[in-house]
Structure formats: C-alpha cells, structure tokens
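User: I'm writing a tutorial on reading structure tokens. Could you give me a worked example: one chain, its sequence, then its tokens, then a sentence or two explaining what the tokens reveal?
Assistant: Sure. Here is the example chain.
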Amino acid sequence: MNEINFLEKYQNKTKRNYVERVVSHDKAACAAIAKQWGKDYWDGDRCYGYGGYRYDGRWKSVAQDIATHYGLKPGDKVLDIGCGKGFLLYELTQVVPGIEAYGIDISEYGIQHAKEEIKDNLKVGNCVELPWTDKTFDFVYSINTFHNLYVYELEKAIQEMERVGKNAKWCCVESYRNENEKANLLYWQLTCQSFYTPEEWKWLYKKWGYQGDCGFIYFE
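And here are its predicted structure tokens:
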C-alpha cells in the first residue's frame, strides 16, 4: 500500500481559522445540518460546509496527476465513491478523453447539481452497498468520504470499494499526525465519525482486505 497525497498542494492553499469555526457559531447545530447533505452543506453558509461549491476548474491539475500516475487511458471505467457534484470526475474526462466516468454520493442535492456533462452517470446511493458487479472498474477512488462513516459502516465500504475495482484504487481521508493536527481536525470537521492516525487507517485497510493506495488530508 502506497501513500500518495494528490491533494497536498491544493490543500495547502486553503487558509482556515480553526478556533473561529468553534466559537463563532453553535458548531453542534451546524454539524447536524451539515449531515443532512443538502443545500446548506453545499451552497449555504460556510458554517454548514463548503459555503458554495461551484465549478471553477481547480480540480483539473489533480485529475492530471491522478491520470498520469495510474496510466488512465480511453475506454477505462472510473468510479468516484462520494463524488458530490462530480467536478473531479468531469476533469478526468477532459484530461483523458474517452474514459467512462461514474460516481455515487449519498447527497441527492449534490447529484442534482452535478456537472451536466456527467450527471447521467452519477447515482444517489450509499457506499456500503455499491450497485455494480465485481471488478467493474479499472480505477476506483474516494476522497473525503470514508471518514464520515461509523466504524461498522467503514468496514463494509472498504470491502465494497475493493470488490468493484479490478486493480488501481486510491482512498483519501482526513487524518492527524500529532496533537496539534488532531485539535485542528476536531475544530474544523462537521461530518467526521472516524478519527484515526495514518497508521490506524492503514491497519484497518489491511485488516479488511484493501489492496489499493491511500492518501491523507492534514490540518496543520
């Protein structure tokens, strides 16, 4: 299992006031609204989530890095677990014309407001039960999704990701390496249920039979 942090350069551009996240609003109430995965989470006030998640091309360089690393080619089938509005999937179709891009997300609002060019290939559903047969996809990835699951859901989701993929897989979650990053993660997160160090995540992946690569987002 290789650790590959495709989002590192993107993540470092974002500046956050971790303490303000806790003291400026009722964070528990904000988290309860965020976990409804509706308009407030995607396009509402920043205290509930993204504060407006709109296509702006920022995912193109990430798509290029992923496509290059995994050697994606026309005709490959790609699945995004927790695809949201499908922006990264769309960029993958642009950097590798001819790939077949599919996605699934628990948010009906996210799918309804997805990139029009790929919306027909996106489904509303839960990652603990993927609606595809074994080894359907050449590449499967998930970003910022699995840490939102309870541990008993997480095991099933990881095994489902492994089941539908043929070879290449990449799973990226929020994590922490020290007490400072742990505090920042706890301050900032709204939807996390699973809080583990990278070593713990890797242990769980191996325990549950995951054969792909992993990545982590840290709140420094």
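What the tokens reveal: The chain has one domain: 8-217. The radius of gyration is 17 Å.
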